[in-house]
Specification:
alpha+beta; 35% helix; globular; binds heme C
Amino acid sequence: MKTLKTLSVSLVAMSFAVAPALADPDDDQLVINDELEMVTETDAPAHLEGVGTIYSGWRFRSDETQSLQLDDFDNPGMLTVDAAADAFAAVDGSAGESCASCHDDVESFAGLSATMPKVDEETGKLVTMEDQINSCRTERMGADAWKWSGNDMQGMVALIGMQSRGMPVNVAIDGAAAPFWEQGKDMYYTRYGQLELSCANCHEDNYGMMIRADHLSQGQTNGFPTYRLKQAKLISRHNRFRGCIRDTRAETFAEGSDEFRALELYVASRGNGLSVETPAVRQ
Ligand code: HEC
Ligand code: HEC
């Protein structure tokens, strides 16, 4: 089998190690604040061919890392989310507006993040949450655009995301979204870099295995923006994609590129049915 051969070559380079004891996700249940039950395992959506069951990345983390997501008081991502709640109410830009002057309560965004990214009907463009926030800032507030992976931006993406916490990811992949989804799918199965590894080689063919010190998950995005202990901040989906592609020793795409928008849609669709977890905590 081609995949196995490539992997055995890459084994040395990436220090893949088969660890049967760790080959599966654990059986722990994610209940946040003792009340919000999350779906961390469910049947794969019909469009997914290579996988029968999908799992949240939470199920692959150590007990210690998992515990940080059980209670919002322990979740280090919440500080950035709290700052975003203040920013939501603060006037910024030449129009003298805050997000709250037009959107009242951030709770009005309940359900939105579960469906993002999605195609804007007027422009035909694939729109991520970051795009939407920056378009309100620049076009409606007269404020500067935020940097894609900055704390301001990812805090706001997480704050809006939290309004959908516990709801199933449900991005559309048909109609106007179809060409973007196809583009993202092609990328997912493209082998990148000197190591010639695709997303699928790691996250579909080999989840459960150990790679360096990491227990490899399915690479789901339902927890994003995610607080990464290693980077000590909330990180964006595109930042994570960059890191994974760089690990294959490839040139990578830019955060906010059309390529990563399409990949974001495709990867999100692989998690249709898992609960929105943001802000998740990962190693
Ligand atoms: C001057 C009014 C105004 C301000 C200020 C404003 N927005 Fe908007 N926003 C709109 C309008 C109008 C829309 C498009 C209509 C709609 O979908 O509600 C929109 C759409 C959105 C959407 C998409 C809603 C959806 O259901 O698709 C999000 C998310 C959003 N804004 C977030 C923000 C955030 C965050 C801020 C502050 C950084 C902000 N907006 C500031 C007027 C504003
Ligand atoms: C060489 C193996 C490898 C490749 C190839 C790879 N990743 Fe990863 N990825 C990892 C490792 C290791 C982690 C950290 C452990 C984990 O969460 O699986 C990770 C984590 C992730 C996460 C975070 C999951 C979470 O729950 O927070 C996402 C999303 C992700 N990868 C997406 C991708 C995408 C999209 C691609 C292709 C562009 C890709 N990865 C390619 C190894 C890889």
